[in-house]
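Example 3.2
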Amino acid sequence: MNIIEGTRSLPLKAVIYGPEGIGKSTLVSNAPNPLYIDTEDGTNRMNVRRVKPGSWEELIAMIEEVAGTPGICGTLIIDTADWAEMMCIKNICARYKVSGLESFGYGKGYTYVGEEMSRMLEACNKVVAAGMNMVIIAHAKMRKQELPDEQGAFDRWELKVSKQSAPLLKEWSDLLLFLTYKTMVVTTENNSRKATGGKRVMKTSHSPVWDAKNRFGLPEEMDMDFEGISHLFRSDLKPAEKPIDILRSMMNEAGVTEAEIQSVVSARGHCPEKVPISDYADKFVNGWLIKYWPQIVELINNARKS
């Protein structure tokens, strides 16, 4: 057996949720080199890098592509889980040609949702295994909670996803943060109480009123400031160099001009000669030019001699 002893410094797996407008996306934008998978157009007014999936399968493919490209980001962020789940449900209904999950009967549709969300989390695990932090943002919803052994009921904050998806997200995460508003209340001279302001806070531990957890010994309540959790994020990864930049470095080293590259590409029928190399697709640059670079340099040298 390969026994591992002691603590391990691993990328973070976090789920961060709270009411709309509290600043979830903005908080996580301070993570190391973030890349958003924006499912709800929530980052349009933020100066961040983003990709926008058009479907559930596209979302899964994006996560796996990031996992297969170490260094493309330091932190991958899914924003948000509840909108991703809606994509998931739409995909399931289209696959089975039904109008809604209720058409399956006996909760079978939601079983499919749980299976698909598990597939998404497996892809997220690949991102973590590749050395990048993984953050999933979600909205919060309030639900009436009734305890079987006590009278009465109370309101409780929960993840705004299905009952099949919520446990999966909570179990998957190392850090489950609930963001909320804390109201300051004072007692006046006539013994009445009034609010005098408030602040945004992060809850890090479970309460009857919300779900939260952490495996890092954080205080139960913290100001909503990224500085308080920044030490949990691995920050040693840098953005991956773009294929075209790698190609240009190889060209400089070999003394090859852009016109010579264009001539070889055109002669092999890949692209018209007038197209600049900056317009070449990353897949073509990686899969042909860089992959077969020694042979391409040889072709160019032979052309120079003729």
